[in-house]
Amino acid sequence: MRFPISVKLLFLAFLISLLPAAALASSTHISIGDFLTPSGQPSPEFKAIIKQRLTAAGLSCANCTSEPPESRYTLSGLMVRDDKGTSYSALLTDNFHLEPEVFIKGKQIGGSSSEPAANKLADSTVQLISNQSVASIEVSGDSRLTPNAVMALAQILPGENATPQKIIAARIILENCGLFEKVRIYLTPGPEGRKVKISVQERDSIIPASIPGPGKAVLDNILGPADLPLPEFPVISEKKFPALCNATCGGYLAYRAESILTRLRHSEYRFNMDDVEELVAVASAIRNNISTYDASCLDMCIILMKLCSMLDLHTIRTISENLQKNVDQSENGPHSLEKNLERIEFLTQAYEATQEAQFILSSRIFHDRIHSPVVPWVLYSLGEQALKAEDITRAAPLLSGAIAISSLPVAPEMLLTTAKAQYSNLDIEAGGAASTQLKPLLANPDLNDDLRHQINSLPQRASLCETVLSINDQDNFDLQLEKGNALILLDRPDLAEPLFHRLNGINPDDARPFTGLARLAFQRTDSLLSVRPYLERAEHMKNKDRYFYELALAYKMERITAEALPTIRIDGRSSEEASATRFILPKTLEYAAGYERFNMPQAKLIKAGVNVLGEWLAYPAMSDAEAFENMFMQTMQLNGEMEGQPEIIAASLYFSTDATDRAEARELISRPMSVKAGLKPRFLQLNLLIREMALTPSVSVVKALEQAARSSFSDTPSREEAVALKADALAIAGLYTNSTSTMERAASLYTLAIDLNEGDQGRLLNNLARINLALGLREEADDLYDEALDNSPEVNEVVELGKIITSLAGKEREAALQEFAAAKNPSRLKDAARKLNGTSNSTTGPEETSFVEMEGIYLNEKREITTGYDNYSGLSIDFKYNSNAWLLPTLHP
């Protein structure tokens, strides 16, 4: 039968269109390792038979020694041939880590050849990996969503091929949709196909009510056409990533992409240039396989989109700044300038390509499956990227669109981000609609502290939005400044910067526009160094406001505390750095004097600190203790002049630890403190009373401690800290007074604190064990000490000491305590062990703290003074002291 040429061309075009999908759906790759004999020698004949059989079954085979990177599976093991026959044991491993390892064992009785055994092993392998279709899906975990809803969100259905790209795409969707705290998805093989197992742990979520969306036309305009080709990524040398050159296996590319995502998702991991190059190489290889879109490419589109989202503007800026520093410092030899400039250009091209690719991929998914449950995540992800790029006019409609079209619950954080973006976009109606749905969460006592704080700040954003909308270009200069400052707090530098430049043109002698530009510089860079040029210009102008002095003082104090003092500690007070620091102090005092008009207590405190620092630098003979004693006297004087000021109260409490007059210090920390004193001074007081009980316990101090512990901390944003601190205080008070009711109350608080705290569980479990020991619950205490050890406690030795007391008796305990006292443990704990053993004597050195002072308590103190600045709360000075008390065990009958 003859066909017209037009039909032949149409058929040819159809075949060409299927090539990308065909490449991604190529046969399964398996690498065959050596099968070792008992002598350790490989058996090439056995391996050759297996390879031949697997190839005949349609699998693509290779040797492990020359393994192609795209090999999905590896088969290797042992074989034994003797007079009785041939036996083998093999391990089938999924190199993409989607399936558990499978152990295959078999035996051939008799025979002159091992071929039947090899064929049997090959057939077992084929049976395990040949059927890659989804036989069933099992959804488990705590989720209000039905299994069908989770399956729909993951884009997996029974009967589909369980390709690596499909499973990895499903994992990306479930991990990033905002609904789940933890997600686990993996495959188990079987003759009927793959069983997909999905385990989820749900996080708090909200079923959103009607929220105004931007409309499809607006989203279409933002996303752009769906039929555009994906952009070319910058070229990387083939030698750098040879495995990716001409890679066509979709499963392997998906696996490489997930490896990068897994590495980069940890916040402590520092994104570097090598990571960017690898990401771009993988993205480019994926792009070459899905440049023409069809339904079979959906999974790879999702993977590529997530991969591209990792290259946000903040990441690019950070890496570029580091490269620029290398250029300035000429660290890499004569070719460093050219090389680093090439890298910066590469970063720029990579960022532009990834941003363009994200919009094209999103448009494809949006127009192809507009009602898919994955679309809200796609839009929200784009909205987050736009926020990082400071493009609020794109971010706001994308975020509101994600919420508006979602048929599933949404995470509170997503709704919060959406509300803030709408206010920043000056859409007070949409912002209010999102804010209203968040308010009921405030009634939840277990709500995350940071989330609670941000929800409570939304009315302020609404007020700022109203301020901006109510002021126009014809209003007076001061109102225009108010509008500019409101725009800063709404994260609208695109509107604030031209406004401040215009105001500077209107009134060139006014310092406030330059101060506004300084605040914008800090907002963009999060570095106080960036404000210096603006402050230097504004310093000689009139109308310096609160913002100017806060920024100027924050900059000077960071220079002193973060740069100068660490160097002076090393080089000494006669060093050049010390001399340079002394020149900074007069200007700092000048700024503090100007700041008195806006914040008298903080300004006075800064002046006192600068004066003491100046004396300490000028007189090297002055000890640190004398300087701190001087600072204590200064703060006590300020306390008398300005009674009830939280920062001054906190400072005097903090420096009381260095007071030579201990009676005065004890009287200060024992004073009843009202809620008006502020949260930080009350926390400080509790910690210092615990310290005092550890050093010089007394009836008056324990009464003050118990009274402070029973006060309310309902105003705290950190419930876990308050509960743990109150538990410590009541535990120490209960042990000192031998009050069963007080100890039982402490035990109850410790149980709650353990549930609330993640990083401090070892200490809390230790202290709860000590209370149980005092209450006569020896077995419970022993179990708690075991649990504390499992949590890798910071002071492991305290827990070990407790474990000796609860788990051993008689001679065994005596020997263990002697061994503990002889080991390299802190001297205070060694003396505690001797006391428990009844052998305490004057073994401690003259400079060591005796156990009598630390009776029953080991302090792992942490203290620091920090200064900071942000555009919302301004200048801050924090006096932090954490007693970090560990309760030591004792012998109870």
Automatic annotation (TrEMBL):
The lineage of its organism: Bacteria, Pseudomonadati, Thermodesulfobacteriota, Desulfovibrionia, Desulfovibrionales. Residues 132-203 form the POTRA domain. InterPro entries: POTRA, TPR-like_helical_dom_sf. It comes from the Bacteria. Its main location: membrane. Keywords: Membrane, Signal. Residues 1-25 form the signal peptide. The keyword Acyltransferase does not apply. This is Cyclic nucleotide-binding protein. It is found in: Membrane. GO terms for cellular component: membrane.
